[in-house]
Amino acid sequence: MMEKLTGPDRDRALAGLPDWSLAEGRDAITRKYRFADFKTAFAFMTAVAEIADEMDHHPEWFNVYNRIDVTLSTHDAGGLTMLDIDLAVQMDELAAGEPETA
Ligand SMILES: C[C@H](O)[C@H](O)[C@H]1CNC2=NC(N)=NC(=O)C2=N1
Questions:
Q1: How remote is the CA of residue 73 from the centroid of ligand 1, in Å?
Q2: ipTM of the predicted structure?
Q3: Cβ contact 66:39 at 8 Å
Q4: Tens digit of each residue's pLDDT, the chain (102 residues)
Q5: Which CATH architecture does the domain made up of 26-95 adopt?
Q6: 34 vs 67: CA distance, rounded Å
Q7: Domain regions of the chain by residue span
Q8: Atom nearest to 87 CA in ligand 1
Q9: Is any atom of ligand 1 closer than 6 Å to the C-beta of 4?
């Protein structure tokens, strides 16, 4: 079982993800992505799905056209763990290849 992130480890991990915010009302992080169009957004989701399934760690997300709202939390731990940080970093790396990401 992955440990919940606390203290300086948590601060350091969050500082490395400037485009993510703490969610309201629960121990999770969120970020909105925007892409050029639906196809690009969905290709991103497909790429993330491969990584997430390999990690056995899955995003909560909501897609409309070119926008994706993502929330990451470790349900088994009841809060943020390094699994969320690792997935967020990998999602940002994938999205960085897309010029219209915001
Ligand atoms: C049985 C399976 O390994 C677990 O349910 C995994 C699947 N994906 C998961 N994803 C997330 N975000 N949190 C979890 O705790 C989690 N647990």
A1: 9
A2: 0.97
A3: no
A4: 789 999 999 999 999 999 999 999 999 999 999 999 999 999 999 999 999 999 999 999 999 999 999 999 999 999 999 999 999 999 999 999 876 655
A5: 2-Layer Sandwich (3.30)
A6: 5
A7: 26-95
A8: 12
A9: no
